[in-house]
Amino acid sequence: MEFLTTTAQAFAHGGFWMWPILAIQLVSFAIMAERAYALFVRRKTNQTQFALGFEESIRRGEMDAVITKATSMQATNPVARAIAAGAMAAKNLGGKEEVQGKMDEVLLEENAHLDHRTGFLQMLGNVATLTGLLGTITGMIKSFAAVAFANPAEKASLLSAGISEAMNATAYGLIAAIPALVAYAILQNRANRLAEDLNQGGLKVYNWLSYAYDPITSYQIKTKNKSERNTEVNA
């Protein structure tokens, strides 16, 4: 209780700029909570391991099975969207370039989701520090202006009140900035790890589609052409 009372008194003595810092702190807490849930709860670093489950089907040329499985699991596994897009391109005989293009399109979109709003934490941390510094400057200006026209008996109390306001603004600005900057570093590191895992899983699938599915596709085309020629001859 004493801590809360002291904190409330310090906030009240910090001047106008304590309120903008409070707003910055609340916004940064909201971003931290949302990003922590998105990156640590909803996303897991298992996309490469998940992609390994498609190797056998791709090597056998079972594109329909690959597309069906990937589509059913893309809600919880981002790499599944890239697998489905690549398998669809391979099934339509699009070639390596089209397979890569379709998969890259999905991977770029998924990687962009990892960085949503995280960069604001760095900005908010810097703004909180600068706002606290601004509160310090305005507090010092107010105290010296008051002292210049005050009675000698009141100068000490007015000066101490202005310095108190300045120091409270500085302290609160740092209190708001430090968690935001620490959270930014942690969340950015997590996003990088998730992106690496996602891209590695997508690359594995692309390699299987490019180097394992191509020979099967060529064989299927030759077989289909041969069957069509035999049908024409028999007709």
From TrEMBL:
Superkingdom classification of source: Bacteria
Keyword tRNA-binding attached: no
InterPro entries: ExbB/TolQ_transport, MotA_ExbB_proton_chnl
Membrane topology: Multi-pass membrane protein
Domain called MotA/TolQ/ExbB proton channel: residue spans: 77-198
Pfam families per UniProt: MotA_ExbB
Compartments it resides in: Cell membrane; Membrane
Record-annotated membrane-spanning stretches: 16-33, 127-149, 169-187
Entry keywords, A to Z: Cell membrane, Membrane, Protein transport, Transmembrane, Transmembrane helix, Transport
Family: Belongs to the exbB/tolQ family.
Protein name per its UniProtKB record: MotA/TolQ/ExbB proton channel family protein
